[in-house]
């Protein structure tokens, strides 16, 4: 069985890919991606999928009243808690 060292590098890179992406590191700057067309294409496809997913579920900020209610609840809780002393 003849192993292509580039394929082994691809397998190793692809195994590290979730960790690279999860850490916030720029996976596109990785040395292997810059030299491997196959892994560069894979990364491009993953980025396209991630962008499509972000568009399906846009980030929604809650109304200001929610934060005000949380702050009020915390203050009430602090006032009603027994103080050590």
Write a brief structural summary:
The chain is an all-alpha fold and 85 residues long. It has helices spanning 5-22, 31-35, 37-56, 64-80.
Question: Would you write up a description of this structure?
Answer:
By secondary structure, the chain is an all-alpha fold. The chain has one domain (about 5-80). It has 4 helices and no strands. The radius of gyration is 24 Å and the shape is elongated. Helices cover about 70% and strands about 0% of the residues.
Mean of residue pLDDT? 84
Please state the CA-atom Rg, rounded to the nearest Å. Answer: 24 Å
N- to C-terminal distance:
76 Å
Morphology call: elongated
- Counting helices, strands and paired strands, the structural category is mainly alpha
The helix/strand order is: HHHH
Helix content, binned percent: over 70%
